[in-house]
């Protein structure tokens, strides 16, 4: 990822937070047929050592998992809030439009999870993470458990120990100080929810 010095995010905790809060990622791999990409919810898990682990699963019918070999790196792309930035919001001219965003690229060699109990535990962690009513979504009854067991062979679960991270925070740091409050205000006043979310994120980064 191209990262000018002004937009480099070197704080690992910042990168881990973005990966956690924006966990619907793009997983890119390279195999015999060329490049493949899947859009998946991925769970970040910290470790005592290293940069952490990414966990996820995909349909067994998805051929991408066949790219996962012992010596082939994959890349998971996590994208935070983003929006168009108009040059009319700047105090100084001439200026050109741009796009503000935050992103993390995580690289590592994936490992398939074969144990059914481990796969079940991963699926349950996913439900607990994303569902507002996990006990209802994953009820503790025999019928649901039987259904889950019949579904497990139809998914491929994996973990990716993170070897390296690239993090970019392009939030108008290269603009004069007077511009950033104007940009945040324009985004905050927008009718578009994603633009208002970016305003809040930029405001947090400014504090």
Q: How does this model look, in words?
A:
A hairpin with a 2-residue loop joins strand 1 (24-31) and strand 2. This protein has six helices and nine strands. The protein has 207 residues and is α+β, with helices and mostly antiparallel strands. The chain is elongated, with a radius of gyration of 20 Å. It has a five-stranded antiparallel sheet. Strands 3-4-8-7 form a four-stranded antiparallel sheet. It has a single domain (5-175), classed as Pnp Oxidase, Chain A. The chain has helices spanning 12-21, 116-130, 134-137, 142-151, 179-188, 193-206; strands at 24-31, 34-41, 43-45, 53-59, 74-85, 98-108, 111-113, 155-161, 164-170.
**CATH second-level architecture:** Roll
Between the first and last Cα atoms, what is the distance in angstroms? 26 Å
Oligomer: single chain
Strand content: 25-35%
Task: Output the number of helix runs.
Answer: 6
Strand tally is 9
Residue share in helices? 25-40%
Order of helices and strands: HEEEEEEEHHHEEHH
| CATH domain topology | Pnp Oxidase, Chain A
Overall form: elongated
Mean pLDDT: 94
Main beta sheet, described?
5 strands, antiparallel
Which spans have pLDDT < 50 for at least 5 consecutive residues?
Answer: none
Radius of gyration: 20 Å
Estimate nothing, just give the exact number of structural domains: 1
> How would you classify the helix and strand content by structural class?
alpha+beta
């Amino acid at each position: 990822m191209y990262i000018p010095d002004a937009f480099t995010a070197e704080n690992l905790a910042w990168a881990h937070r973005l990966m956690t809060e924006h966990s619907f990622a793009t997983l890119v791999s390279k195999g015999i047929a060329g490049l493949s990409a899947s859009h998946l919810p991925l769970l970040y898990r910290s470790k005592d050592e290293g940069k952490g682990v990414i966990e996820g699963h995909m349909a067994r019918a998805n051929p991408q998992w066949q790219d996962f070999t012992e010596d082939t790196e994959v890349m998971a792309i996590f994208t935070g809030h983003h929006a168009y930035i108009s040059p009319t919001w700047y105090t100084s001219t001439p200026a050109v439009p741009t796009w503000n965003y935050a992103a993390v690229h995580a690289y590592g060699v994936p490992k398939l999870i074969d144990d059914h109990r481990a796969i079940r535990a991963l699926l349950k962690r996913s439900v607990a993470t994303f569902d507002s009513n996990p006990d209802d979504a994953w009820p503790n009854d025999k019928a649901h458990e039987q259904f889950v067991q019949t579904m497990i062979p139809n998914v491929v679960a994996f973990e990716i120990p993170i070897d390296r991270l690239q993090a970019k925070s392009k939030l108008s740091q290269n603009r004069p100080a007077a511009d950033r409050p104007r940009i945040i205000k324009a985004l905050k006043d927008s009718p578009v929810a994603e633009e208002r979310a970016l305003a809040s994120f930029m405001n947090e980064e400014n504090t």
